[in-house]
Amino acid sequence: MSPAAGTAMPGKDVTGEVTFLARELKTPVIAQTFTALGDQAREESWSHEEYLAAVLGRQVASRAGNGTRMRISAARLPQIKTLEDFTLSCVPAAARDVIAHLATTTFIARKENVVLLGPPGTGKTHIAIALAIKAAEAAYPVAFDSATGWITRLAGAHDHGRLAGELKRPVASSSGYIGMQPRSHSVVSDMVSCTSGVPTPTTSTQSCDLPRWQSSTRDHARYEG
Questions:
Q1: Residue 145 contacts residue 176 (beta carbons within 8 Å)
Q2: Are 99 and 206 in contact (CB under 8 A)?
Q3: What is the CA radius of gyration of the chain?
Q4: CB neighbours (10 Å) of residue 137?
Q5: Cα–Cα distance for residue pair 109/96, rounded to 1 Å
Q6: Rounded Cα–Cα distance for residues 221 and 115 (Å)
Q7: How far is the C-alpha of 103 from the C-alpha of 27, rounded, in Å?
Q8: In angstroms, how far is the first alpha carbon of the chain from the final one?
Q9: Nearest one of 224, 225, 158 to 185, comparing CA atoms
Q10: Using the 8-state DSSP alphabet, how is residue 132 labeled?
Q11: What's the pTM?
């Protein structure tokens, strides 16, 4: 009589088999954790389903974390800054509410732009970087550059007919001063106002006045430092 379903055959190397299967599935975290989690499951009388969920959960969490790290690395952020590190007590209550809303990244799905305005040293770049990290954690690809870097990058793409492709990343985050020359204004307007026909949510920090940006943006949320 064959063994009952779910009963291991005598002498069968279950550990080796699971390790092999995890390798074939390219799930290294399962291979690393299934033995320790199995011991814990026996000690705490987990059900089979609870054990399976725990093992798969470790693998999914690791994969999600790796994806976030890759997106943050690809964004080429100048430094790592988070909203948790930002001193919210330094900004008005209304601005704190706006920042909390932006942290949900729902503006990206709605294809809305964000313009952070204020004098130097008020935390605009910190918030822009932190929002880029929130977007990466939400599985959005991110691109970050200075204003002058974006002008050079987008102007070159425009000249070579690659502007639409350059604007396909859901989030573009830029910071710094922009010399509003006609050509600079044109390429930034393409990025912020989506005049190229590609809806690209943009987070931009600026020290210039709001009316000049209102003429370039279709939708924007304001944080004035």
A1: no
A2: no
A3: 24
A4: 16
A5: 21
A6: 6
A7: 31
A8: 77
A9: 158
A10: H
A11: 0.63
Alpha-carbon torsion (70, 73, 74, 80), positive or negative: positive
**What order do you get walking across the sheet with 202-206 strand by strand?**
142-146, 171-175, 202-206, 113-117, 220-224
The C-alpha atoms of residue 117 and residue 225 are separated, in whole angstroms, by 6
Decide: 203 and 172 in contact? Cβ < 8 Å: yes
CATH of domain 83-224: 3.40.50.300
Instruction: Out of 52-56, 81-85, 211-215, pick the least confident.
Output: 211-215
Nearest C-alpha neighbor of 140 from the set 101, 173, 97, 117: 173
- Confidence at residue 108, expressed as pLDDT on a 0 to 100 scale: 86
The answer to whether residues 203 and 131 touch, using CB atoms and an 8 Å cutoff, is yes
CB 99 within 8 A of CB 221: no
Q: Where are the domains of the chain?
A: 14-70, 83-224
Tell me what percent of the residues of the chain surpass a pLDDT of 70: 68
Rounded distance, CA 141 to CA 161, Å?
22
C-alpha span between 155 and 68 (Å, rounded): 29
Mean pLDDT (whole number) for 14-24: 93
State how far the Cα of 161 lies from the Cα of 171, in Å rounded to an integer.
21
| Strand blocks (E) in the chain | 113-117, 142-146, 171-175, 202-206, 220-224
| Model confidence at 181: pLDDT above 80 | no
d(CA 151, CA 139): 26
Instruction: Report the alpha-carbon distance of residue 145 to residue 170 in Å, rounded.
Output: 14
